[in-house]
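Re-run with default settings, no changes from the original entry. Doing this only to confirm the output is reproducible before filing.
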Amino acid sequence: MHGWLVNFLDPTVFTASCALLGLIVGSFLNVVVHRLPIMMERDWQCQCAELRGEAQPVHEPFSLATPRSRCPACGHPISALENIPVISWLALRGKCSACHAAISPRYPLIEALSALLCALAAAHFGYGWAAAGALLLIWSLLALSFIDFDTQLLPDSITLPLLWAGLLFNLFGIYTDLQSAVIGAIAGYLALWLVYWGFKLATGKEGMGYGDFKLLAALGAWLGWQVLPLTILLSSLVGAVAGIALIVLARRGRNVPIPFGPYLAASGMLALFCGRELTQGYLHLI
């Protein structure tokens, strides 16, 4: 047992183990990204029916665990061998084994991103609570990014627990001191809340959703208020460039909403790994 633990604590073994764990969790994140918005929509339908005094809509049991994963085109149940992260998609050449319908390359993309980012977290933080928290933050940000990209939603069921988890980790000073974390949560929420209301009062339109406030508050709770200016700046720059590219290259209408969550999440991940260095450099330039 002692020898196994010594081997696991070896940086190379620990990094490889986290990468493998990232692959496995990445496969589950695909389920979350697909199913959680549907679960939310069904819950809203039930709430609306209750408010109207109508009978509850009847749906088949649907959760993150049930029903079993299947091909959306033909309903073919996905076997265990067809569900190996990345490898199964490559072996199947991106097609269903039953009907040969195309399987989105986003499935292996999420799995590979999860593995890569988890390996980086393991190498950066080493064995300990900082690495464990980094994995949790990475998985949450990946799920939020792809859900927001698909639906323009950032579910409270992820953002709010993420905020409290950040405060819990920093209760023990894992990433920053508790005071900086609390101020970060407050400042993160208020910063985008003020932008939202300023834009709405000036134009009569909503420039972003409330989920963006909560996501930035969560990042502030994890990483402290010091990284917020750089996080907002980076996410705004990347979002502006991506938005212009979508309009010019993809001929996307200017009135089509562009999700801001993925850019906040990407900036948050960057701040997780090198926020202190970037902030010091940013302040030095100023």
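The longest helix spans residues 11-52. The mean pLDDT is 87.
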